[in-house]
Amino acid sequence: MNINKLRADTPGCEQRIHLNNAGAGLMPQPVLDAITNHLLLEADIGGYEAEAEAADAIEGSRSSLAQLLGAPTDRVAFTEHATASFVAALSAVDFQTGDLIATTRADYASNQIAYLSLSHRLGVQVLRVPDAPEGGVDLAAMEEVIHRRRPRLVTVTHAPSNSGLIQDVASIGTMCRARDVLYLVDGCQSVGQMPVDVEQIGCDFFSGTSRKYLRGPRGAGFLFISDRVLDTGLEPLFLDMRGADWIADSIYQPAPDARRFETWEFAWALVLGTGAAARYATKIGLGPIRDRARSLATVLRENLADLDGVRVLDVGPELGATVTTSVTGWSSVDLTNQLRMRGINTSSQTRIDAVIDYDTKGVDGALRISPHYYNLESDLDLLIDALYEILSL
To answer: Rounded to whole angstroms, how far apart are CA atoms 207 and 199?
Structure first.
């Protein structure tokens, strides 16, 4: 991995130290070119005409994304963002009163809110499987729930946004397949950070975004849909004329493939940017990307733990590139602002971003620091120096 070349591909590296890849990664030049070239084409010939001219490139983006996920091309749908993907998948499940959703205590806040909304509106039960002592969901407890309670849906966030934890989604997939239980995985934080193979995970749905570790644009997401979902006729609650054909006054026909989960209007420039981001990551290799990002995160956790008043919050048998910490006497928001003033990008979370996890840890939020493969070891040193200076104020 040629770090200097990768940084030369990334204009943002010249401006700031970017350690907020769990929020939005810096886009490399090929992604910027794919987006801007299409926008210029739209300006020159018109939006619909540009879409028609770019039709092959758009399908090429679908193919590149499918390759990244280990999926057939026709099993990947484009969406506006990860939450749109996740909600479309949820809406495809015909929940009835008393049905059970089995999830984890670490699932993403927006997902938790969606579960509660289903509970309030439809009488769906929500069961958060307990954590193991070492962190992460207790796999034995999850298997017990799947075996004895037969949930209508199991849903797990692969890499929670509030922690470095990586959940063992493949083991849970094996459990779901053995009991013929639908399985939805939120891969918003994992795609682009590590290898992802939806077939190996064994999920029925896998939602993701372009903007984070994949280093694509904001406002672009995607959803993998399994053969089983399509073969059993599942479809999103609200289809439109891209996802289905209106063939008689009271009859519509859903698309036969993943396109049934798409809607008509898209920012096609962002779709093309997503395809470019998928190709860029694939060319580098997701294994090397994972190894370097995790190596930087490990060094960062060790260095942070040496600072007085700093507590590293990440726990679990497998930790990824997202590092979370709390600092005595400082709010995460104030720390983020102080670091930004010094040209260092991080992000802050408060209690409402992860109520269960932060209450359990006894903190009111976290400073979230998320290096990626194009960061330098010296970036981490400058962050530590800046924090030392801030904490001395």
So the answer is: 14
